[in-house]
């Protein structure tokens, strides 16, 4: 099973999150189910971005897929820890 790498933008807020949601929904509809999200450029994530990640994570799990976060910096990791999503997501 090959993993699709998806780059997360520097500012992962409302507009960017909506764009990613549409992209992930499209890919899931095409039977893709293994994703690696590259956070190497991301310095900010808001609640909309978090919501998109949680929704996509659940959809992947429902089809026995994988959903990994990669290269999360300390600033963004604080948000994952505050929301306890660091316990949910596979963060490398």
TrEMBL record:
InterPro entries: Anti-sigma_ant, STAS_dom, STAS_dom_sf. Signal peptide: none annotated. Transmembrane segments: none annotated. It comes from the Bacteria. CDD domains: STAS_anti-anti-sigma_factors. Residues 1-92 form the STAS domain. Belongs to the anti-sigma-factor antagonist family. NCBIfam families: ant_ant_sig. This is Anti-sigma factor antagonist. It comes from Clostridium algifaecis.
